[in-house]
Specification:
This protein is of the alpha/beta class. The protein is built from 13 helices and nine strands. Helix 5 packs parallel to helix 10 and helix 10 crosses helix 11. The radius of gyration is 21 Å and the shape is globular. The termini are far apart.
C-alpha cells in the first residue's frame, strides 16, 4: 500500500536539519522504502499554491504540477512518500494551506498521515523571534511578545496547539494526525530519529549522515549585538564578546515577569490540548523553570552591566 506522510513542522523543531539530512540521503532512504522527492528549494515550493512565499521558492512548472507528478509516480506503489515543510502549518488567517484542495491532489494514495513536532512555547517564542530578527531586524521584541500573547501566533506560527489540531481536523481524521514531541520526556531530543521511528524507519536515521543546521547563538548576546551594530545587523564576533557579561549563565531574551506571563498564558492551553490529544504527556510540553542561578534574564542588564558593555565595545573599537 502507498502512503503519503506530510511532515508539517512546526517551525523551530529541527525541520531544516531533517530536510537537509533526508535530501542528502535520498538514495539510502529510497533503498529502505522511503521516498523523499528531489525538488528545487526542498519542498517549500509545494505550498506556493496557497501560501505567500518569496519568488525563489516557486517552481517554474507550478506547485500543482509537482503534486500531480508525485502522486502519479508513487500512489500505485508500496512505498512511503515523505513531504516536509514547516510552511504547511502556517496559521495566519489569510496565509494558510488549503488542505481540502491538497487532499484532492493526493487522493490516489492509499493512506495519508499528517505528522507535526511541537515544543513548549517558552522556548519556541524566543527561538522564532531570533530566527526572524536576525534576518530582518524586525519585529521589535515588545510588539512581538505582545502579539504572541494576544493572537496565540508567533509570526504566523501556531502557539495554541488545540487551534492547530482543530484546523487539521477539518480535513483529516484524528487517526491521520500525529503530534510528536520535540523534546520527549522519555529521552534525549533527536527529532530526526523521533520522526523516522514513528514512520517505521527506526534504523534509517543511524544510516544517514545527519546535516545540522540553524544552530542558535546566545539569545541576549545576539539581540545586544544587533542593537549595537545597527543598521548592519547581527555581528557574530561581537556577540561572542558579549557572552562573558552573563557570568557563565545561559542568557534569555525574557525578563522574569515576561517568562511568568508566557507560562500563565500557555500552560492552561497545553493542558486543554493534552486532554484531547492523549498520546503526549504534560512533560512533553513542560516549560523550563529557568532558575536564576543558571540563567541570565534580560532585566538583569542593570546600569552597571550596560557600562561594562560600553567599555567592552569601546575597547574593541580601539
Amino acid at each position: 500500500m502507498s502512503k503519503l506522510v506530510l511532515h508539517i513542522g512546526t517551525h523551530k523543531t529541527a525541520t531544516t536539519t531533517i530536510q537537509k539530512t533526508l535530501h542528502h540521503n535520498r538514495t539510502v532512504a529510497f533503498e529502505a522504502g522511503l521516498v523523499y522527492p528531489d525538488l528545487p528549494q526542498q519542498h517549500h515550493g509545494l505550498v506556493t499554491e496557497w501560501i505567500k512565499l518569496p519568488e525563489f521558492y516557486h517552481y517554474p512548472a507550478g506547485a500543482r504540477a509537482h503534486w500531480e507528478h508525485i502522486t502519479k509516480t508513487n500512489a500505485s506503489s508500496d512505498r512511503t512518500v515523505l513531504i516536509s515543510s514547516e510552511e504547511f502549518s502556517r496559521g495566519s488567517p489569510n496565509n494558510q494551506v488549503n488542505f481540502t484542495e491538497l487532499r484532492e491532489l493526493v487522493a490516489d494514495f492509499d493512506e495519508i498521515e499528517v505528522v507535526c513536532l511541537i515544543r513548549d512555547q517558552l522556548s519556541l517564542i524566543q527561538s522564532i523571534f531570533f530566527e526572524v530578527y536576525r534576518n530582518h531586524g524586525r519585529p521589535g521584541w515588545n510588539n512581538y511578545f505582545a502579539g504572541c500573547l494576544k493572537t496565540k501566533l508567533a509570526t504566523g506560527v501556531y502557539l495554541d496547539y488545540s487551534a492547530l489540531y482543530d484546523r487539521l481536523l477539518q480535513d483529516f481524521s484524528a487517526d491521520e494526525i500525529t503530534f510528536l514531541p520535540f523534546r520527549p520526556s522519555a529521552g534525549p531530543s533527536n527529532p530526526l530519529a523521533t520522526l523516522m521511528t514513528h514512520m517505521g524507519f527506526a534504523d534509517l536515521s543511524d544510516k544517514m549522515s545527519q546535516e545540522d543546521a540553524n544552530r542558535s547563538s546566545d539569545p541576549l548576546a545576539t539581540w545586544l549585538s544587533i542593537q549595537i551594530n545597527s543598521p548592519n545587523g547581527f555581528d557574530e564576533d561581537l556577540a561572542k564578546q558579549i557572552v562573558p557579561l552573563f557570568e557563565g549563565r545561559k542568557s534569555l531574551m525574557y525578563t522574569r515577569p515576561e517568562a511568568q506571563q508566557i507560562r500563565a498564558a500557555f500552560e492552561p492551553l497545553n493542558m486543554r490540548f493534552l486532554e484531547r490529544y492523549t498520546r503526549l504527556t504534560a512533560d512533553d510540553l513542560k516549560m523550563n523553570a529557568y532558575d536564576e542561578e543558571s540563567y541570565f534574564f534580560r532585566d538583569r542588564m542593570t546600569a552597571l552591566k550596560w557600562i561594562e558593555l560600553a567599555r567592552l565595545v569601546r575597547s574593541d573599537a580601539t
